[in-house]
Structure formats: structure tokens, C-alpha cells
Design goal:
Elements (H helix, E strand, L loop, with lengths): L23 H10 L18 H8 L4 E7 L12 E7 L7 E4 L7 E6 L7 H14 L5 E6 H10 L1 H7 L5 H4 L3 H4 L6 H13 L3 H17 L13 H11 L2
Parallel strand pairs: 4-5
Antiparallel strand pairs: 1-2, 2-3, 3-4
Helix pairs in contact: 8-9, 9-10
InterPro entries: IsoPropMal-DH-like_dom
Protein name: Isopropylmalate dehydrogenase-like domain-containing protein
GO cellular component, one term: mitochondrion
Amino acid sequence: MEAMHAPIYFERYDVQGEMSHVPPEVMESIRKNKVCLKGGLKTPVGGGVSSLNVQLRKELDLFASLVNCFNLPGLPTRHENVDIVVNRENTEGEYAGLEHEVVPGVVEILGSHKANIMKLADGLFLESCREVAKKYPGITYNEIIVDNCCMQLVLLEGLESRLEQGASAGNVGKDSIVMENKANPAALLLSSAMMLRHLQFPSFADRLETAVKRVISEGKCRTKDLGGQSTTQQVVDAVIAKLE
């Protein structure tokens, strides 16, 4: 943000996944500012310890979890022109989601359900989806049983890492790479661009997103997960150098 001279000022807090509770001053800051840029928080293994991620979701009623899946220039993938978002219920009920393209030109919405078994709960979910779909006749609406949906995701490996949150590449990597300065900063940088758009600073968001994509596309500076040998800081420095 400083490199772009964006009109954003952060209140910084050091929160570790091993903590038993989110510090009250952190919650106060989030409620006051209405925006929070959060890095990954490790969930401790074992009983009796509540995940800080779950605490944040419940305390702030963050009921929707949006996961973006899209191609980046310069990175070969099995599928092209992928632009999908999964909207997952975060705070109550079973997992439920809609896959859709969120940019202008939405072409399809898919309701993933278990109504064949959970006839009341997911039956109500499908009824609600169908009622909303009637209001948008120009958008194709389809339904799929979640078992089949998961099978399709497994078959399409290029989508799996971003769409199946529990099995995403970022979740199965070593925790130590963050401390070793090897983690890929692209996700956090692109999340920062999303934050800037939310705050109505689209020009700054475009600059940051374009810089990230240019660095990845050129392929000269990449972290190990993308086939390179660069450190986290080296990638960040390369992105800063590309800011226009």
C-alpha cells in the first residue's frame, strides 16, 4: 500500500494460531474499521482448542465464505477461461454453495445440495434457489447433488485446489514455509486488491492486480510452488517494481 501511495492505513496486530482466543483489541479494531486483511491462521490439532478462524466467523457473523478460482496468465493449467466463485455457508447449517461467474456476463448458477437425503433442510434450500432463479431468467440455473459435485471437482484437478477449501494447495503445504520466507504471497496480494475494490479504490486495485499478474506471467520471479526459487520478499519486491 505504501509503494502505491494508497490512502490506506493499517492497525497491525500479531495474532498466532496457537492462541486460545482472538485478542479483544483485534475484535474491537475489526468492528471499528469494518475491514480486515488477515493472513493464514494455523488451527491447532487436538481437542479443547477452538480455531481462531471459527471464532472470527462467529463473533463477526461472517456467514459467507467466498473462494475465487481463476486462471493467471503465464501459468499453464488443464482448463482455460476458468472464472468461478464458490459461496459457502460459514456459520450455520451444512456446507452449501453456489458456483457462478461474478463479473458482468454471469452465465450459469449451480445449486449444490443433498435434498435427496435431507429433504426438509436442503429441500428448503432448493426452493429458495428456485425462487431467486425465477427473478433472473437470463441466467441459467442448474442443480446437482453434492456427491456428484464433489466427484466433478476431483476429476477437474485444475479447479480442486481453489474450490475445495479443505483440500486446497495452501492448506496442505508446510506451515514452516511462512517463517522460512518461502510462501507464495500472490493470494494475499490479490486479496489486498479485492479489499481495495471493496473500499472503492478500483484504480489502486487494478494496479496491484496487474503487477501481480505481470510478475507471474514473466516467470522470472516465482516461489517454489510455482516452479521457481524466489523467496516471499523477492516476489513482493518484484511486484512493487511493476506497479505503475
